[in-house]
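ugh ok so i messed up the first submission bc i forgot one of the chains. this is the corrected input, ALL of the components this time, i swear. 529 residues overall. if the numbers dont match what u have on ur side tell me asap before i send this to the collaborators (the ones from the other lab, u know who)
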Amino acid sequence: MTTYRAIADHAVLVEFSTAISDAAHAQVLQLDQALAARPFVGFNEAVPAFVNLLVDFDPLLTDHAQVATHLRALTGQALLSTEPTLREVLVCYEDAPDLAEVARLTDLSPEAVIKAHLAGDYRVFLYGFAPGYAYLGGLPQALRLDRKPSPLRGIAAGSVIIAGAQCLVTTLTMPTGWWIIGRSPTRILTGDPARPFLFDVGDRVAFRRIGATTL
Amino acid sequence: MTLLRVVRAGPHVTVQDGGRLGMQRFGAPESGPMDRKAFAIANAALGNPVAGAGIEVSLGGLTLECVTGAVTLAIVGGGFILNHNARRLGTWATLTLRAGDRLVIRPGPWGSWTYVACAGHLDAPLWLGSAATHGPSGLGGGRLIAGQNMTVSGARVLAVEAAIPCPIWARPRALLHAVPGPQDRFFTAETLTDFATSPFHLTDAYDRMGVRLRGPALIPEGALSIPSEPVLRGSVQVSGDGVATVLLADHQTTGGYPKIATIISDDLDGFVQLRPRDAVRFKWISAEDAVGLARLRARAVQAYMTRYGPKPEV
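and heres the new structure output, hopefully the right one now
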């Protein structure tokens, strides 16, 4: 059941489910798209996540009840674009610090870990943690590991990291407790003012293997 | 051209502007000044756009020297102490720096953050169209570093140095209005009562991302984690051991901890002017009443700006 939770004096959180599912995320994307096409007076921004969409508004122009009414009218409309964009991300697995350990923990050869990672069908579920940190769902079952017991500091931007069902390409030098299985020259923070972030939430992502010489 | 040299800058002294709006869906919080009203007043006092770039000074303090040219500054926010050459004065004032002048800004009787606006345009790197510094990455206008030069384009010198009235609502605020949730359902009625009746204290774990509070344990029932969901400036998130953290300007955009409450936007400016070990209390307010209060408060700010802000050029 869809719930509309009032937050502070300036936001409504629309929640489609309490557990992560593809169906809930599809509803998030649907409402996000519909709202972008038909914003209300006082709309500031929308932030999509796994099961909910945060809608921030200007309390001088509208209020929670009016916003919820607007959102209810948009919920359940058909997706405007049903075919998600496919984005390619290059990855070099050579000299990856945790590849051998991931292979050991998953009982696979390093080459089999790479093949499994490349075979994943990834979707951008949400951004979080830091600018450009896009959480990609769809890591194959065979590679799903708990995160490390404690995070490592100073992990370089462009690291390809995995934990649980998720994969992420880091954009900043930050600590992480995830497993580092590669590095990527593909910039998620593109530096292009017209399109500063490579992915939209909902995009499909495919990894393509490159050698260290092309990195 | 007016050139200012950073002689000394404490930690967390950064360039800010009105904030990087609309990028939370990409993981970038608004950033911008911790005390948004004080920042806007500093700019308004000089006739600048209220969201123009300025400097946020932390309790670490800042020393500037005017190398060439001259510029009038407005210094507004926490009650810090200023030494302008041999002269000592307080914040909530304008003053003019001329070549060779030195300005020392250090913590004073109250407040955690104070703001330096320059009459003219403070040149600073932009990231995604904004000079607001995102603390964890340093992207945007950036942290100030000793030896750095900053230029002010179109620098102006105002005829008179004047005090700027400090309204009561610009002082530190120790009573915060909080709307329950979005995960108040994970807490017992008793815990929700504790939240609104017991004093909390700010701890030293305080930076632009947030501040951890010390107070009664707010143990969530059952749900230790929820699917990561969007969080806001003002979210009161509770970790598994019952410790509350208030998210601030550079907060992460999503998180999996339950939020017992969310503080109304207007209370946050005064809240961040508290210091570690200061006491704070929460008062429950309905979402409806919170909107009413936001409108009431906005009228007071507007009245102040109309009275003391820049007069339209005749």
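quick check: Chain A touches chain B at residues 5-11, 13, 15, 18-20, 44-54, 56, 59-60, 63-65, 126-135, 172, 174, 193, 196-197, 201 (CB under 8 Å). that seems consistent at least. Chain A has a mean pLDDT of 94.
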